[in-house]
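Example record used in the benchmark description.
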Amino acid sequence: MLKDFRNVSGTSRSGFGQFPIHLLRCLNYYSISKKYLIEGRGGGQYSAKSLAAVLTAAVEKAGIKKPVTPHWLRHSYATHLHEGGTDIRYIQELLGHQSSKTTEIYTHVSNREIREIRSPIEDMDIKI
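Model output (structure tokens):
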């Protein structure tokens, strides 16, 4: 299910986000009773710095040694969508990019994709 997240981050970024259907009731509850899905202590918008701190704590608790940032999560999400076959135009819309050039950074080639390329010769019935 897609949820319209336009202008919820307090930044110029807007777009849609995928939200698991089984969490829809929670989302609807928070959408009705709160202005923000995740609110800060005073009920206002959670700051980017606070979200980064929560993510850092979760990464440490999980024992992940690589650096992780909220933006890297966004990048990983888009990369997995692309590698899974999602058209780049849909990814552009989900991420709220105005220009397809911005979204094209997710079109880098993965090793898995290279291994899956077949030569046209492999499809020919040639006996040697």
